[in-house]
Structure formats: structure tokens, C-alpha cells
Amino acid sequence: MIKSFWIILCIAALLPNAFASVTAPANAPLNNDPDLKTAQALLTSGDYDNAFGQYRAAAVSGNHPLAQFTLALFYQNGWGRAIDRKAACEWFEQAAQNGVPAAQHITGLCFEEGMHRPADPATAAQWFHKAAQAGHLNSYCHLGNLLMTGNGITKDPLQALALCRPVALQGSVPAQVWMGKFYLHGDSTMRNPQDAYQWFLAAAQKQSAEAFHHLGMMLDQGVIENPDAEQTRQLFEQAAALKYVPAYFQAGKHFFAAQPDAETNRLPAEHLAKAYLWISRCNTKIRRYGRDSCRPINPATNTRHHAKNMVGRTRPENCPAFTAKLNRNPLMKSNRNG
Fold this sequence. Notes:
The chain is mainly alpha-helical.
């Protein structure tokens, strides 16, 4: 598919120093290699099987780091085959060893999560540092997270903030979200809800789904003074509309718990419809991927039980105006099938 090709093309274009440390044969312009040109054309056309064969042949030769990186993407994204995160991490590591900054960052994630080798946060920190030094600046925040928690390396919350803050100040949305999480959930000596709120707000202004969700949670949990129920619902709905899965349950729950209509003492039809839609979508994720796929912040909450219960209580037949509201709302119609 064309989208698949653009992912790879953007990596190559945005990381001009990706091959600086690779030996001479691999430094040759990739587009001059006829095999890789063929592989790129096959991938663009959606011919995954033949594209995979071409990329694999180039990757195993050891002379093409971008081919190794692309092969990892085949396994990571399930392009024409089953997703295999272990195999993806193995190829990301090979590309990382050949100097691709994006691969170095992902290799850090692989070691942090123990995807292809036993979890090793100290090695993850080394890869994050390499990636950051090579220009993958968000890696500084991932390294900062290890420093903030002391996971595998010496704990240093001040250094964690010092590494991530400059990236956030440059406008990086992931870095801004990290700064919010550091101030909200990081070391107790660093916590500052007001600073966390401001960083999440900065990221939300750039349409960060995760930032919307964190802002909603802060209002819901009373971390921010004078919480507003309508604003909380809106924040969770914005996160859910941007496909941030943990927000599905929260959005549905808050629409379900909205103030009843003063005249009928019933939940307004639009709120009932939205509650049904978001909880149904959450329930679908739970059925497909397990109960943790749509869990709220509190891990003790039985999300599956609550989701199934609320789906039953918000079915269309419980509200005569449900179908009309559903058909008039394009956002709601687009989310009907989860």
C-alpha cells in the first residue's frame, strides 16, 4: 500500500544521518539499488509477499540497514503475515546496530519491554541514549523515564526532567505528554499537578489523544480544582474520537453518569446514545484483545463487568429517541462498529 511506502520514505528522508556510522557499501544511495527499487515498488502496490522477499534478501546481506528496518516493520505491522513482535525486535536491533536512529529507539523499547530478549532496562537506556544522540530527540524522554523511576539505572529525577524538557519546549507533542506524566506520576519530589496540567494542555492543543485523556482524568479525580462534569466528558470524548482506547470506557461512563433531564428524570437521548456507543466500543476491544485493552486507570476496576453492564442498560430500546440521535450525529455513526 502507498501508506506503507510513505512510512519508510519518511524515515529515510527525516533521518539524514541514519547511515553515518555504516560501512561504505551500506552508504550507497538506496534508490540506486535495483533490488530495493523493486522492493519499494512492490510494497507501494501492496504486493506484500514479493516485497517481503526482496527486502529480506537485502536485509540478510547485512548491507542495507533500511531494508532491515523495513523487514522489522513487516513483522511489527503484520504486512501480509501474522504480527510477530519478537522477530520485529530482532530486525530492529540489526538495523540499530547499523546506525538507524529510529531503529535504535525501538530497540530500546524492545529491551525495556523484554520483547525479543529478557527485559534489560540498562541496555534499553544505552539504546535510547544512542538514538537521542543521533537525532531521535524523543528518546531523551524515554531515557528520562528510566531515570525518573530508577528502573535498571541510577535514579535521577532532576536529570530526567533536564533531558526531556528541552525537547518538549521545542514543541514535540510526545515530549510534552512525557513532561505531564513526570509531573503527575513521577518521583514524589518532582510532582506538580499544575505543571502537569499545563504540559498536557500544550499537547492537547496539538490534538494529542493521550493528553486529552490525562486532562480528563485530572478533572475526574479532582486533581484540578473546580472540576466541571461537562468539560470532563468532552475531554474523554475527544480522546476517544482520536481512537485512544483507554478513553472509550471513560467517555461512556461519564455520558452514562450525566445529569438526568429535569423534566423526564431520564438521561438525555444524546448522552444515552453516546454512552452506549463508547461502552460498546470498549466492550468490543475487551472481547478481541482481553480485559486490559480498555482498562481504566484504576487496575482494580473490573472493566469487563462494568462495560457489559452499561451496554445492557444503554441499549437503543431503552430510549425511543436513540436511533434518531444516532443517525443525526456523524461522529457517532462513524463509531458504531467499534
